[in-house]
Amino acid sequence: MTDRRTDPSLEDLDRRLVIGAGVAFAVAALAGLAGAVMGGVAVLTASSRWYRRADLTPQELANLKWQQAKAAVGAGAGAWSDAERSSYSPRSKRG
What we know:
This protein is an all-alpha fold. It folds into two domains: 14-55; 57-88. Helices cover 74% and strands 0% of the residues. It has helices spanning 15-54, 58-87. The radius of gyration is 31 Å and the shape is elongated. The N and C termini lie far apart (90 Å). The model has no long low-confidence stretch (mean pLDDT 86).
């Protein structure tokens, strides 16, 4: 019988490559975390500026946005039905 081993072993791993991969992963994770923090700061800063410009209390601002959303839904529904009425005829009247 030969003395060859066929089972995987830790000796088969290139330790330098594994350590390099770990370092690259750590650097990427830190870069991703830094990017997330920078993005969060940008969003918070923009939100703060927008809120100061609005010159309304939070309740008034929420009410205004709710009214705008309701108006947009009504306008969209009206445009949808107007386009349907002007462009298409029912099947029962076609032929």
